[in-house]
Model the fold of this input.
Amino acid sequence: MPLIEIKGASKGFGLPGSRTEVLKDINLSVEEGEFVVIVGYSGSGKSTLINLISGLVKPDTGEALIEGKKITEPGPDRGLVFQNYSLLPWLTVEENIALAVDEVFKDWTLEQRKAHVAKHIAMVKLTPAAHKLPKELSGGMRQRVSVARTLAMNPKVLLMDEPLSALDALTRAQLQDEISDIWMNNKTTVIWITNDPDEAILVADKVIPLLPTSPATLGEPMIIDLDRPRDRRSINHDPKFKKLRTQLITTLLDAKGRTKSKTSLKLTLPDILPEDLTTVNTLQFLNRSGPKRRTADKREEVEVAA
Amino acid sequence: MHPLIQKYKLDSIFLPLVAIFISCIFWYAIAGKSVVTEKVDDFGDKIKVTKRAGLSADLPTPVETWTASKPYIVEPFAKRGELDQGILRFTWMSLVLVAQGYFIALIIGTPVGFFLGLSKQFTKAFDPIIQVLRPVSPLAWLPLGMILFSGVKVLDADGRTTFGASDAAALFTIAICAMWPTVMNTAVGVRAVPVDYLNVAKVLKLSKWKTLWKVLVPATLPYMFTGFRLSLGIAWLVIVAVEMLTGRPGVGGFLWQQYNANSYAHIILCILTIGVIGYILDRLMSVVEGRFKTA
Done:
């Protein structure tokens, strides 16, 4: 039985009439210990997809399951790493992580919980910054705290919603490697969402493109059978990597190309009749009903590509 | 600008002094002056007649104000009688009353603000009432307070009233007038708590109580303290009206009593005192407020 399963889910937002369908026919199954990355364009519904699993969003049709049970609300078994870190700014690194640990492991002793917090701070190499507030940390450090907080809950699955997209390229690369290392050490199931195809191939076992059709659907999964640990310097010359990368980018670009829709708009041509200015100084002029058209309903159709 | 002035930021002392000086000249110009004229009365004796003249004949000049106020300022804690005390003694009495009323305002205002911020239905239901009650003047609330608490009477061992209807009415007026900024700011603050923080609470499955104390309250604190500061300003503003109407001793009561006693110089003393104390309270509160500006 897969750990996480989504069956025929769709989701839209807004009231009837002005509704936008975001996701349609989403079918996904993630095995335990898998590292799955979902790649898609910005605004194509990636966050909505991961929130179906986290339980923050409920599907309109279909269902999301964890270990065969229906997901109805958020819970600590599905640890979510937010794009903007979402650390509580009035708590230190240690307190932020402790908030999660204290809540999830209520029956542990104080020492056990403290040790657990310290272990996870050490895991993301932030022991010297344990007593700092989030505002005193760099973006990369904040996201490491966020990852540590999530991992400290011992979740069955680690959900990452564009965890690195707010970081600069160098820090991003470093964190990709660090998260890969952490994953290799404790093999938690990971579902990672990103808009960066290189990042996807570099960290994942399986990459699933989210095709920007409207509403969006998932494409065919690609198995990434590159050896781990993956060295980002040499991997650029690996023909297998290049092939996968080309394949992924082509899939995404083709899907985007197909969605270019054609819209036709009815535009009215300017055909206003000249006004008779000899009537300007008469009462008749005051009663005029505005500019007149030769034919009020004469329109021409112009096709515009959106 | 002269480098010395720049170095010690003297302009921030010097320029206000200039403004104060100009204001005093203006004050002096419109204030009345005593004019002494000699007259021969009906018996043929020469007598001196003192009359006040000027744009505003009864307004004392700055110098007259200072001379008349001096005993109250140089001995700020003296007690010469129930209604003749040093200015800081009066101020202290007013501050105690304000503190009590303000405390009640916060105790009631903060939870109300939280309910307004958390529940849309609650907001829809109570917003009209709040918007209507908010602009009502303390002068209007006080008589209502007197009626509401007409039965309140706490006596001490000697049978003297220590806490009567007018005291209860005074507290009621200060509390109900000072409450609104706290209510409104807390409500806005609760609504402004980032969804991400609430999502964190949801993912961690924090209980309602824990979400309130660990997430909502800390996230709302900066807004709450802005409300607290504005509330304190209003509580202090209301004190004069309350003391005038109830006749309680205090800086406002002193002001009204001195108006009735025709010692106009003391009115100016009271106004300046109220202003300075209000300013100090506001500065103190903004220091506290600044400490909570996290994030």
In short: The mean pLDDT of chain A is 83. DSSP finds nine helices and 13 strands in chain A. The interface with chain B takes residues 54-56, 73-76, 78-80, 82, 84, 86, 88-90, 99-100, 103-104, 133, 135, 153 of chain A (CB under 8 Å).
